[in-house]
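Quick one: co-fold with zinc ion.
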Amino acid sequence: MRIVFRGTVQGVGFRPAVYRTAVSLGCRGSVRNDGSSVTVDIDKGEQFLETFLEELPPLAIIDSIDRSEYALPESVKGFTITDSSRSASEHIPSIPADTAVCPECISDMRHGRRKGYPFTTCTNCGPRFTLLESLPYDRERTAMAAFPRCFRCGEEYSDPSKRRFHHQTVCCPVCGPSYRLVDSEGKTIDGDPIATFATMLSEGKIGISKGWGGMHINCTLDRVGKLREWYGRRYKPFAIMVRDAECAERYVDITPEEMEQLTSPQRPIVLLRKKRDDETLELLSPGIDTVGVFLPYTGMQVLLFDILDTDALVMTSANPPGEPMITDDREILALGADMYLLHDQRIVNRADDSVLRLCGEDVFFLRKSRGNIPCYYQVDKTGDVAAVGAQENLAGAVASKGRIYPTQYIGNGEGIGVPEYLDEAVRLQIRLLGAEPSIVAEDLHPAYRNRPLARRLAEENGADIIDIQHHWAHGASLMVDRGIDDHLTVLALDGTGHGDDGKAWGGEVLSCTMEGYDRLAHLEYIPLIGGQKAVYDIRRLRLAIDMINGDESDTGFTDQETAVLSKLAGNSVGTSSFGRILDALAYSTGVCSERTYDGEPAMRMERYLDPHDYNEYSTETRNGVISTAHLFSGLKRSRDPTADASGIVRAILSEMVDIACDDAESNGEDRIGITGGVSYNVPITLMVRDLAGARGMDVVTHTRVPNGDGGISTGQAAIALNRL
Ligand SMILES: [Zn+2]
Ligand SMILES: [Zn+2]
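Sure, here it is.
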């Protein structure tokens, strides 16, 4: 029999696992890697498959298994692994992602020749993508090329009975990379680097540690105040790394679905509900009910927690605000930490920690990166395209051979070095996939900083450029996420995206296909007084609303300022953004008076939104415009704004859901979708579910592609593929 396995079968210990099963069953035959697939020629095929599928290597993901007749020649004795061959035909590479150090390797780090060695990994675990230069995944094309295997590691590599058989990055204290600890000036600090780092953290110092895809700033929880001062971050939440799942439960409440994510080999940061009344937790994410929690995933982090007397550390990406994470040892010294735990293994590809939260069983990726990238979404369109995404939470995407591959999370497009990082990441995907894009897709917004990259990519590949409306791309990204290729009516609830009419959209009901979209309805335009300034000074939103209502304003502006702003309002761009409505609501109810980081007012608003506790408000739609301003008339600050805030949000959603459901029904569908950055807000998504459910409609939510702008490039790529 000939068996062909397709999927993530390279760099995951697949062939050795085949070998071990075949030998244990006394089979004859061979296994080989064909670049994209693994082919097994074997005599007792059925018996082999039955056993092998029970014992799959943990990192393998099988997309398909093809069986065909094949008479194994009598001359074949025993079972062998033959060399990789890159077949020229239909080549779809699988690019492995980084995976948390496995329990066997953790035990190897506690005794034996790898005792205390933080780079211990095996075919079942360890960094992959962040070390990878090019394919196929072999040591000489990774950062480990600089560290030739020693004799004993060579023996493990060649022994089919060992877990490190054909493990490309096998290493040990004799031959592999190592850590060192340096002070603020870069001078080496004597002693065991990890143990000394742990001691210094316990003394209250702020340190930086180098991991797999980047570096983290670390300190103990009682130093959060000092960290905020030092790092210049007043309120933006920090994530914590805790020793293990049991310790996590001391800080947060965890559902079984959340626990599964927290302990998964991808080890994302999971946003979890804080246990109440804990002052330290409150300082980590002021005004917000959740805090980001993750578990150790590198050998160094495991060893660090072995030594630390505390069970949690603040762990946040080490980068100057808005810029990509630093990966260079010399550059990092400029951050001014007390000490740096560095190593000499080059980070080839940066990858920030993934961040997600759960809404029931649905996974909302706020950031899809380390552990989850590379990945792909199957689509039934062939051809090659590239997409450069939007501006905030930037990520790119490349589509080839019926799959869309998003890049890792890149950052905020306005940050220094961010467009360059996007350039690198998109080109890497193009190179790894051997893609030749014939269309490059970009956002409609004329001022986004990634547009020059789109120009260059198009010129170099002789490709066309297409501009895609932001919320249509959100809709398309949700369709890709859920494998819907015909039609979906969506609520696009978002911060800002450039509209066809030049206005700032973001509260839209769109009837979407991959060919185009109809804008069925949108929220009333409210002037963004002074443009972007109104996004940060949210008092201006309330002032604009008061002006629409003809109400007296109580926003703290002087009469003179009010006069100037009123004049300015006439020339300001209007916005239909749902995010801005939440900002105005946060200001008006006294929940938040300024925005110190992206999304802050809306995030602080979340704890006051309750799908079941609300006052009755109502609104109406005329000519596709849903009125919103009148809801604010008479709205005052109060100690508990829950019922009013929930009522207002629900009234607006109710109108949007009705319009969306009418459209879905007229298309013979029993579902609508919800997408955009505001859909991360769990109570809002639940309200939409309730309202649609009352009409017998299901709500399609994101679960693989990020809800927010991190998913835009995936939607753009799908739309571009459709143009081919
Ligand atoms: Zn391992
Ligand atoms: Zn070695």
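If it helps, The chain is about 30% helix and 20% strand.
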